[in-house]
Write a structure and sequence with these properties.
This protein is mostly helical and 630 residues long. Among the domains are: 2-53, no CATH class; 74-210; 536-609 and 618-623. It has 30 helices and four strands. Strands 1-2 form a two-stranded antiparallel ribbon. The N and C termini lie far apart (138 Å). 30% of the residues are buried.
Length: 630
């Protein structure tokens, strides 16, 4: 404070200042106004003294010069500098544990500043990379990035703990973009993946920051390129790294998933390089897609063709891809982790055995789903034969291969499973028709499938297969053996490459199997037989009489003599008209084959309404009338 002295005056030298003895007459005020305290201005007392000492223009008094305040160093910068100096002073080989131990004291001080919100955004941005060139020259990139990932993970958690409310963000969007970029720049490994997941969940999930899919795409691409740049890497080790990525990073994008995968494929396949390098990129790219859980089987198959085309994978690569697909779809990864781990030991030839064991180690409701994933993936990458061969060498191989046939939902896989089971057998074993039911139509209508395969593989005999399926297993209205035989005849009639003779022989076999069953013959089968014979008669080939007698004989055998006589009468009348038209005895009439066949089918329908089912015996029309009159 400065005292203002009333009635004070200067006296000639030697001078004195007369001061009043009554202190109450003094007034007190601040020497400098608050707004001018940091400015070098002279106070009143100083000006008084200088006035007493001499004129103001005295050059011996130096004029005040403005000074800039000294730049202060924040506590966070001090901690970072001490951390870097401590790491630079380390000598000898360093491991992850030794580096972590060296960082812990300084990390504690830095985390305290973060939790107290006593660190600026600029200082925290500098703290994202605490390692300078001095320590990077001493330690490998992989080891240092492992410690760096651990360091950044605890920083993220400290930021989360410092928030007043979960949605509070004290550092802004630019800071989080830098954080993601720093994370993706680290070596792809388990700590890096765990850091990425922590950053997504604990860092930005609750704040106003949209985690764009581009970060996921860049992370996946960085992992793919990292493994592709290691030509000598063992497939088993790369498989574990890919699995750790999706174990740590929970990628469950549903909306826009196909678009995301297309962008990933396009970005990876556009990377230049030699053929071997691009081949490794394609392999690790497909392995990455195999681990994406929401990806459907059809979409994965399309992506596989888009990435590799018709080229074949190596056996080890194909197995790793199938294993990745099973890991993404199965729900028992923890329970049978030992089986999955043993399956990576591909040197002893037991890898398929352990992978099948892993698929069967799930609950019964999931076993067929796992087998479907195995067969579908193996068929895509081209090692279905190895899978089926391994299954045929396991205990209860027949049951396992039949389960694979049922689970596959693919007729070609089903045929391959049956062929593997019968490999080396002198007499081929047949499997029940109810097992083949989902595939029979595709097999019969496929021109590339030999018809003999159907009769060799499908068991239609009544004493070896079931007669009727439960209602929940009916397919396309087919619930028993006779209905299946009817449908098989219809399907083969529409087969594009079948000749009339082949159609006739197929219908005959269907009728023969229906006859063995001891049940009333199907009208649809007999109608198909009549269509083939009448069309043959219409063509005018030799042997009309023999074919006419053949149809009548078949009708008598399966429908009874009365129906056979009606068919004989109708066919002979139709034949007489045709012959006389050719000789000119009667005027020509337009013949409608479909109409004639319709009338024949109507006759057979009437027969079925009159026949009885008791004791499996046929009743004549007179018997029906007698029973109705009683």
């Amino acid at each position: 404070m400065t005292a203002i002295l009333p009635e004070s005056r200067a006296s000639p030298l030697p001078w004195t200042i007369d001061l009043p003895f009554d202190l109450g007459e003094w007034t007190w005020e601040a020497p400098t106004a608050p707004i001018n305290r940091h400015k070098k201005e002279l106070g009143r007392f100083e000006r008084l003294v200088r006035w007493l000492e001499g004129p103001a223009q005295d050059v011996s008094i130096p004029a005040p010069t403005p000074t800039t305040p000294a730049e202060t160093i924040s506590e966070a910068q001090v901690v970072l500098a001490e951390l870097r100096d401590a790491l630079a002073g380390l000598t000898g080989a360093q491991s992850r544990s030794s580096l972590s131990a060296a960082c812990k004291p300084y990390m504690g001080r830095l985390l305290k500043l973060i939790r107290l919100r006593a660190i600026s955004c600029d200082d925290l941005t500098l703290a994202l990379d605490p390692f300078d060139s001095r320590i990077r020259e001493k330690v490998s990139h992989q080891t240092l990035d492992c410690v760096h990932a651990w360091y950044l993970e605890v920083v993220v958690k400290a930021i989360r703990d410092s928030r007043i409310v979960p949605s509070h963000d004290a550092y802004g969007t630019e800071f989080w973009h830098r954080f993601f970029n720093q994370t993706i720049a680290l070596t792809p490994q388990r700590p890096t993946f765990r850091l990425f997941q922590t950053l997504v969940i604990a860092g930005v999930q609750q704040i106003y920051f949209k985690t764009v899919p581009n970060y996921y795409l860049r992370l996946f691409q960085a992992n793919i390129l990292h493994h592709a740049s290691l030509p000598g890497e063992k497939p088993a080790r790369a498989a574990e790294q890919h699995a750790s990525l999706f174990e740590q990073v929970k990628f469950f994008r549903k909306g826009g998933l196909v678009e995301f995968c297309n962008r990933l494929i396009e970005s990876c396949l556009s990377i230049p390089g030699d053929d071997e390098y691009r081949k490794r990129i394609a392999y690790h790219l497909l392995q990455t897609l195999a681990y994406i859980i929401p990806l459907s089987k059809g979409t994965f198959s399309r992506f596989a063709g888009q990435i590799n085309g018709t080229a074949q994978w190596k056996q080890q690569e194909a197995f790793i891809l199938v294993r990745a697909r099973l890991l993404s779809k199965a729900r028992n990864r923890i329970r049978v982790a030992t089986y999955y781990h043993r399956s990576l030991n591909m040197g002893n030839g037991q890898h398929w055995y352990w992978l099948i064991k892993a698929a069967l180690g799930d609950i019964p409701e999931r076993q067929l789903q796992n087998l479907r994933t195995l067969t579908h993936s193996a068929n895509i990458v081209g090692n279905l034969d190895e899978l089926l061969t391994a299954a045929s060498q396991m205990p209860h191989a027949g049951t396992l291969l039949r389960d694979m046939l049922i689970a596959s939902r693919d007729p070609h896989v089903a045929v391959a499973a049956w062929a593997t089971y019968n490999d080396g057998r002198q007499s081929k074993a047949k499997w029940g028709w109810h097992i083949w039911l989902p595939y029979l139509r595709a097999l019969i209508e496929d021109p590339e499938i030999d018809v003999a395969l159907i009769w060799d593989s499908v068991d239609l005999l009544p004493f070896k297969s079931i007669e009727t399926l439960p209602a929940r297993y009916h397919l396309e209205g087919i619930g028993d053996r006779m209905m299946l035989l009817e449908s098989m005849g219809d399907w083969f009639m529409s087969r594009s490459d079948a000749t009339p003779r082949q159609r006739l022989r197929f219908i005959e076999k269907c009728i023969a199997h229906g006859k063995v069953a001891g049940k009333p013959m199907s009208k649809r089968l007999m109608a198909n037989l009549a269509k083939l014979v009448v069309r043959d008669l219409e063509e005018g080939s030799l042997g009309r009489t023999a074919r006419l007698q053949y149809l009548i004989k078949m009708t008598e055998l399966h429908l009874g003599p009365e129906e056979a006589e009606k068919v004989r009468h109708q066919l002979e009348g139709w034949r007489w008209v045709i012959v006389n038209q050719d000789s000119g005895a009667v005027p020509k009439t337009e013949f409608d084959l479909q109409e004639e066949l319709g009338e024949l089918e109507a006759e057979m329908d009437g027969y079925h309404t009159r026949q009885g089912l008791g004791d499996g015996e046929l009743q004549s029309e007179c018997d029906v009338q007698d029973s109705a009159g009683v």
